[in-house]
Amino acid sequence: MVAIEIINLTKDYPRGFWRKSYRRALDHLDLTVQAGEVFGLLGPNGAGKSTTLKLLMRLIYPTAGTARLLGQPFENIETHQRIGFLPESPYFYDYLTAREFLDYCGQLFGQSRSERRRRVGELLERVGLVEAADVALRNFSRGMLQRVGIAQAIINDPDLVFLDEPMLGLDAVGRREVRDLILELHAAGKTICFSTHVLPDVEALCDRVAILNRGRLHGLGGLDDILKMKVQASEVVVAQPSPGLVEELRRLTDGVRIAGDKLNLTVPDDKLYAVIECVRQKQGRLVAVNPVRPSLEDYFFQEFGTEKVPDLIKRL
Amino acid sequence: MQRVAVIALNTFREAVRDRVLYNLIVFALLLMGTAVLFGQISIQIEELIVVNLGLTAMTFFGLAIAIFIGIGLVYKEMDKRTLYVLFAKPVRRSEFILAKFCGLGLTLFVNIALMTVGFYGALYYVKRSLAGPDTYLLVAIYFVFLELLLVTALALLFSSFSSPVLSAAFTLGLFIGGSLADDIRELTRFVEIPWLGLVTNAVYYLVPNFRNFNVISSVAHGQPVPAALVWLNTAYAALYIGLVLAASALILQNRNLK
Q1: What is the 3-state secondary structure (H, E, C) of A261-282?
Q2: pLDDT tens profile A213-256
Q3: Which ipTM was obtained for this model?
Q4: Domain shared by A30 and A97, yes or no
Q5: Interface residue A146 vs chain B (CB under 8 A)
């Protein structure tokens, strides 16, 4: 079953007052996310990730295109009964306590008093806010607000969850907890779509990703599919190298590094078999041969150039 | 309607926690001071003064709450992006507008109800008794409440598309214009410009006519308010508020959140 279907979605923002011009934030996006997937929206700042999520939640309206969520047209507000959403850098009613706020959200979903009491208790426990449950949100740190935000996004036990930068403002423990939570939701068969700058999280969590840049879809598929295209080398580890072997290998490839009593080599694919043959002939011990899979970080550097990447890296 | 009630009650809770009802203390002090002062003087006008001052203070305090909270009802939620969370839930934008109006309406109702208790207390202190004509004052208080609901709806309308400063200026301007609606129409008697009649008539019918709600001087003198005026004012306020809220909902419905 398809959970999210985006068809030709486009968003232009007007600029100027008298002489209006338009800035295209999202450019004819087509995308499908299957039910039960963890789907990542990736891209540098201004890529169109948050715009996509806001369009899907009807917080802003598209210039063109449409979408379906859980099989329903995205204009259908009743579908939100089965959807959860965490906005980027969320802000809540600061005069409420965390417990009151979550209870308020539960009421908006029409939950009964007993259901709300149970669910709010569970979620406060789940996001580690039991101690601060009755403290006004105005006294919360950014990380704590993010936890409240995640709790409110799943108060209705949604089938589809949108998370806009869920790791933002969280410390290492918080990030780990959110990762675990996403995996739990995934295991429970929920569909999760999240945008992020934190590339290791994407690598750890996502079944598939869409890479956006300047409002355009730049890549779509499994991480391996996207990164496989870029595999052009292997890392070879050799133990007990003789001086002759080191000399020979240095002639074959540039990437030879001595690490203690081992040799680490980065070998281009076209020279891999020659290197292995050389190790065999010189009686070195071949410990490992691994394809060098570039990280998403490398991918971004390659695809978008250095001008966009520093911003991306800064927020890691 | 359940969602409307939930958001409305939260709006009321916000007002209470923001200490909006503290204005009651100032109101109580003002009335107590007036009652004690004029109770001592006793030159037969003390009742008139307490009634006039009490009802005018109710209008003034209520107006301040309606305008200064009303102008932030939508703007603040949009500015702080609390609407992101709200509209991601199954909440229609029209429900939000109606709920915000009801929430501030409830705040004003509680405020006026408590003021009314204090007001009658002060009146009793001055007169040493309450008589039948004193119930006419309740009609005047009801009209003050209708007036404040109208102002709330206007503030909400402006809040849905402009900044708080502009919204306050527009709302206050319309309140003053609406209070002077009859005088504006009479302008043509003093200035002879051919097209002026059209303009003043248009203004007269467009702006809410707040003067119709002001019966303070007649009830202060013990005169009853005709039942027809109560019905007409109620219907007028309901219709005007309905139209203004519909316009607010339409504006918000078509807005992209920032």
Answers
A1: CEEEEEEEHHHHHHHHHHHHHC
A2: 888 988 888 877 776 655 578 889 998 788 888 888 888 888 78
A3: 0.84
A4: yes
A5: no
